[in-house]
Amino acid sequence: MGIKVEDLYDLIYNWKNYQKEADEIMDMIKSKKHDAKTVLDVACGTERHMEYLNNYYTVDGIDISERFIEIAKERNPDSNLWCKDMTTFEIEQQYDVVMCLFSAIAYVKTYKDLVQTLKQMKKHTKPKGLIIVEPWFAPETFYDGNISVTTSENDEMKVSRMYLSEKKGNVSILHFEYLVGTKKRIMHLSEMHELGLFTENEMLSAFKEAGLDTEYDPQGITGRGMYISKCI
């Protein structure tokens, strides 16, 4: 089986300090819901945050990528992990905390699906539980025509990723091109990501429409901000 883009994710993002981010998430949970014991990570990716949070909570996760779920299960064998779409997911349990990090919420693209996703999160949150959402860029802060290059390597491969940003209406489009070198060959992979651009007012309005009273922290854990809701 050949290398897929999903297999490069952890290597490309090896600069992220997941332990620091997990510690900050834990501090956030303790300050708002000190008795929390269970966490659901929506759009969980390969679950590096879970790796640390599992030391303090029972953490489960969902993601639309089957490969990400496979990787996450290898890393966190005691957690429940499901391949599900965050706009429609159904799980037969509720959690003290439901979170969606690293701007994954923006993959819903439209305001309608944003509201629907927040309703699904609320449905799976216990009374007096927390919903924590890290946003993507707003329309006025996303740059069209930005070019960026990232290089990463380990003992098995070297990767160079270049992306070009594009803006169409209120949707950001990221065109990714990868050069992946192993000891046997060099290969080229491509992918495209589309993420909705929502203003702060639109985000707060969507939370309100989903029946959630929400506060906004403009800094958050990575500088992109954080929305925090407490369920009634």
Question: Can you describe this structure in just a few lines?
Answer:
A hairpin with a 2-residue loop joins β7 (158-168) and β8. This protein has helices at 9-12, 18-32, 48-53, 66-75, 111-123, 200-209, and strands at residues 38-42, 58-63, 81-83, 95-100, 125-133, 147-153, 158-168, 171-181, 186-196, 213-217, 226-230. With 232 residues, it is of the alpha/beta class.
Word description of this protein:
The protein has 232 residues and is an alpha/beta fold. It is 25% helix and 34% strand. The protein contains six helices and eleven strands. It has helices spanning 9-12, 18-32, 48-53, 66-75, 111-123, 200-209, and strands spanning 38-42, 58-63, 81-83, 95-100, 125-133, 147-153, 158-168, 171-181, 186-196, 213-217, 226-230. Strands 3-2-1-4-5-11-10 form a seven-stranded mixed beta sheet, with helices on both faces. It has a four-stranded antiparallel beta sheet with strand order 6-7-8-9, with no helix packed on it. Helix 5 packs across helix 6. The N and C termini lie far apart (48 Å).
Secondary-structure map:
Blueprint: H1 9-12, H2 18-32, E1 38-42, H3 48-53, E2 58-63, H4 66-75, E3 81-83, E4 95-100, H5 111-123, E5 125-133, E6 147-153, E7 158-168, E8 171-181, E9 186-196, H6 200-209, E10 213-217, E11 226-230
Parallel strand pairs: 1-2, 1-4, 2-3, 4-5
Antiparallel strand pairs: 5-11, 6-7, 7-8, 8-9, 10-11
Helix pairs in contact: 5-6
